[in-house]
Amino acid sequence: MGGLNGEHAVHSPQIRMANDIAVQFQHLPPEQAAEAIAAHIRMFWDPRMKAELRRLVTTDADDLDPLALAATHLL
Amino acid sequence: MGLLKEHDLGTPAKPGTATVTVEIDGIPVSVPEGTSVMRAAAQSGTDIPKLCATDSLDAFGSCRLCLVEIDGRKGTPASCTTPVADGMKIRTQTPRLEKLRQGVMELYISDHPLDCLTCAANGDCELQDMSGVVGLRQVRYGYEGENHLDAPKDTSNPYFDFDASKCIVCSRCVRACGEVQGTFALTIEGRGFDSKVSPGAGESFMDSECVSCGACVQACPTATLQEKSVVDLGMPTRTVLTTCAYCGVGCSFKAELRGDELVRMVPHKDGGANEGHSCVKGRFAFGYATHPDRQLNPMIRERITDEWREVDWETAIAYVAERFRDIQGRHGTGSIGGITSSRCTNEEVYVVQKMVRAAFGNNNVDTCARVCHSPTGYGLKQTFGTSAGTQDFRSVGEADVIMVIGANPTDGHPVFASRMKRRLREGAKLIVVDPRRIDLVRSPHIEAQHHLQLAPGTNVAIVNALAHVVVTEGLADESFVDQRCEDFGAWADFIAQPENSPEATESITGVPAEQVRAAARLYATGGNAAIYYGLGVTEHSQGSTMVMGMANLAMATGNIGREGVGVNPLRGQNNVQGSCDMGSFPHELSGYRHVSDEAVREVFEKLWERPILPEPGLRIPNMFDAAVDGTFRGLFVQGEDIAQSDPNTQHVTSALSSMELVVVQDLFLNETAKFAHVFLPGTSFLEKDGTFTNAERRINRVRPVMAPKTGKDEWRVACEIAQAMGYDMDYQHPREIMAEIASVTPTFAGVSFDKLDKLGSVQWPCNDAAPEGTPVMHVDGFVRGKGRFVQTPFVATRERSTRKYPLILTTGRILSQYNVGAQTRRTANVAWHPEDVLEIHPHDAEVRGIADGDEVTLTSRVGTTTLRALIADRMPVGVVYTTFHHPVTGANVVTTENSDWATNCPEYKVTAVQVGLRTAASAAAVERDEEPAWAD
Asked: What pLDDT is recorded for position B889?
């Protein structure tokens, strides 16, 4: 069983939310998880949020869960 | 209509299909087996005189007025307690019966104040009526004997009086308190002539356990229990049938007026949701609608630091439209949006989301359900195919096992709780899953078989453990699963993993494994098992996961698709279901259809003659983030106080302060209005014309009791803003809005005002396949075809207790108050809850030197507030609890930005906090916006 990072680091909302989504799919094989995360983001995020997440990949990739990072590349 | 008085048939209906035929006064009558002679007579048009009988209560047989003669039987049996038998010949009017009844009435009247002409119940008194019916002409005993005419009057309750001098000790109030409400606050004290109705052990009503539901007042046949408003204003003369505007039960009420003045709200016996019952809010707390705090004229101001300036509607609407268009011109189409309200009608909500999508030209519309039941929408859609509770409320009467998870129905949904308690008294078993020992765990004649007192934030671990037991002990309903569901195998493999076992999760949840196993066995094998849940499920970082976990559990055990089972959200506000149905979410059009679905968009685009964007808009928390970022600059807020109700107040107010235009439409200048540039006065439910949809998908009519005090229907406001922004949106009547909703929403296709007026209410889906609605869903198949099992791994929240913040705060509501309290604080309900308090376990209080009633400081990593401590052993050690009904308390000052991963529903139920005695030093620190020193 996993857990969200207990630290309350000050991330952008998009990184925090993407990481929150990612951890829910960590039980799946990585490729499947990344696709599920991307699908969720496509279904529920406003275009500017998706654009901001894509932008953050270039500046704050280290803050993103690896699965969230992989999902972002699928957006 | 004139004053509506439902026909009282004397005793409750008996279910069953077998009928018997009897002859009453020579007329043959066929009724269900078990029906009383009294009811059979009433159904055939003969009302037998009665006093202690009423059809909301079981027969009692004490007044001896309803005597009849039956061929072949000795004596004169009471018709209320005598069931019909095939071939029975009954006489209800004979000289002997007449004489007996007159004798009974003589006794009653000899001990009754004969002040009928000045009595508040004159014209609405069954004792008075029966005197006439039996032909009473004399009282041979006189009036000078020993009597109760000097009995004291109890005026302690703010809404009704108890005048014992008028009491005939028929026990209807006592029985209503027990049978209907389930509180058992009233009793008959003393014996024989000294018998009297007593709240508790000789206490006043206000000091007793009475919950002021009004059932006793409703049941009283005389003026003994009488609304103060009737005493003050007189007996009402006409009725308007409408729907309560408080919780998601959505009770039907008779608004009873005298001229144009509302005298009282009386629960409607034919109301599908409540069937004649009520709670203290719906029954009595309607005074806010005419409260002097209401702002009735539009107001505008350039800056939020300016004084408000009252303007006419035309000016206000032009101002809103011009500034919204100006913002869009400078910052783009997506820079503005709107929030709809669950306190508004379906029609009012529909036009606001239409205004956003068609006139604003974006999908930036969300609803206050975001912060309560949005995970229900996600979770039930993923598993069952649509966002709705599976049952009608009546279904609980067929449940054998009731599991209540993260809900406190006796406070939050009291009228449904009364139904549930009745079933529990009949023998259904109860499992409560809640960190607090809520009243339902142990109350008169009810005791939960299992109280799984889990640590806050561990719901998913518990539901997985319950499902683990079902799967690994071979308790799954394989036939149901095989025929009705998909993805069971993969899910069963997942849930059977040792980490989901009760033994493995015990250290996470704090619930002993054996208790979990026993509860799971009971749920799976105890007959019809029904789940009812509330915000204790949804307002978590895994709120959506938990909803899916409960759906998994119900499907695995075959507890879906018939009466007595199901997965049922208890919705917070009265129109949460409806506001979600109406397309208020940024990713869905009405009927829960995603905006990316081209075929669905086309339906709307054709009708609205505007393109609909294929991608979702911003959700409420995203709007706040975008406002702080500067990309979201204007917001229309319909009937919602986001500055008080949404989490992390500081973030919300920063967002609101960042915007160029905040438009608030509400009854009162609420906390959000402090950040508004335009205030548009809203209408109370007493002025609305439309529909509400309750938690059981029941669409009820809301009918205007009075004209809008603001001079404008609320739905017209959104239409006029849209028009002023260049989009033609025009309706002549809300029935036209519902007609449009029906034309574009398959689940509402058969709904119309005419049908609602004819049938009273319908539950969606209501269409050609189900012209009169659908009480129970997923009967032959799930909405999505097959029910889908979804794997639900437990993921601990990031909000954890620490050395600095060692306690966990969870929040909720209490019976007498509602949501942010804007309505109930402006009624006499404040008598029960003048302030929010912090419930804390005696141990946690003692180690902090806190005594009951002390002022304490409550601090989280995002804020500090102060409130009074209530030491309560129903709290577990390490957990504190408060409500958010009073703005001065500011409970949401301390709640955080954490939210459900799928929907961004805030994690209100888990906040790490510290609590300390409020001292002069800590108070000064709070004033300086610092953490008190003890927090370290």
From this structure: 78
Q: What ipTM describes this predicted complex? A: 0.92
CA gap B256, B239 in Å, rounded: 5
Distance CA B372, CA B580 (A): 11
Q: Name which of B352, B225, B905 is nearest B663 in CA terms.
A: B352
Distance of CA B12 to the CA centre of its chain: 25
Q: Give yes or no for a cis peptide into B765 (omega within 30° of 0).
A: yes
Closest residue, chain B, to A22 (C-alpha): B901
Neighbours of B102 (CB within 10 A): 18
Please report residues of A whose CB lies closer than 8 A to that of B508. Answer: 1
Q: Please count the residues of chain A.
A: 75
**Under-70 pLDDT residues of chain A:** 1-10
- Å from B81 to nearest chain A CA? 60
Alpha helices in B9-62 (DSSP H): 37-43
Name the strand (E) or helix (H) holding B757: helix B753-759
pLDDT reported for residue A2: 46
Element (H, E) at B20: strand B19-24
Q: Are B715 and B368 in contact (CB under 8 A)?
A: no
Among residues B495, B415, B820, B804, which one has the least CA distance to residue B652? B820
Letter string b/e over residues B764-801, b meaning 16 or more CB atoms within 10 A of that residue's CB: bbbbeebeebbbbbbeeebbeebbbbbbbbbbbbbbeb
CB contact under 8 A, B622 and A5: no
The distance of Cα B311 from the centroid of its chain, to the nearest Å, equals 36
Among B626, B795, B902, beta carbon nearest to A4: B795
Nearest chain B Cα to A23, which residue?
A: B795
Contacts of A23 in chain B (CB under 8 A): 795, 901
Q: What is the mean pLDDT of each run of 10 residues along chain B (936 residues)?
A: 90 90 96 96 96 96 96 95 96 96 94 92 94 93 87 96 96 98 96 92 93 97 97 96 95 95 96 96 94 96 97 98 98 97 95 98 94 92 94 97 97 96 98 96 96 97 98 98 97 98 98 98 98 95 98 98 97 91 96 96 97 97 94 95 85 94 96 96 96 97 96 97 97 98 97 97 96 96 96 95 95 87 90 92 97 95 92 96 85 86 93 90 58 42
The two most distant CA atoms of chain B are separated, in Å, by 91
Residues of B in contact with A7 (CB under 8 A): 798
Enumerate residues 6+ apart whose C-beta is below 8 A from A20: A4, B541, B899, B901
Three-state DSSP class for residue A14 = helix
Q: Which of B494, B596, B616 has its CB closest to that of A46? A: B616
CB atoms A8 and B622 under 8 Å? no
B329 CA to chain A: closest CA distance, Å? 18
CB pairs under 8 A between A and B: 82
At B482, phi and psi to the nearest 5? Answer: -60, -45
Distance from CA of A35 to the nearest CA of B (A): 15
Which residue in the set B363, B622, B901 is minimally distant from A21, CB to CB?
Answer: B901
At residue B99, the 3 state secondary structure works out as: helix
Q: Suggest the residue from A11, A16, A44 to mutate for an interface test with chain B (most B CBs closer than 10 A).
A: A44
Q: Which two tokens stand for residue B270?
A: 């034919």
Phi and psi dihedrals of B366, rounded to 5?
-140, 175
Q: Taking CB atoms and an 8 Å cutoff, what residues of chain A touch B364? A: 46
For residue B180, which of B415, B473, B388 has the smallest C-alpha distance? B415
Residue B354 dihedral angles phi and psi, to the nearest 5°:
-70, -40
Q: Which of B374, B625, B631, B648 to mutate to test the interface with A (most CBs of A within 10 A)?
A: B625
* CB-neighbour burial class of residue B885 (10 A; exposed 0-12, middle 13-18, buried 19+): buried
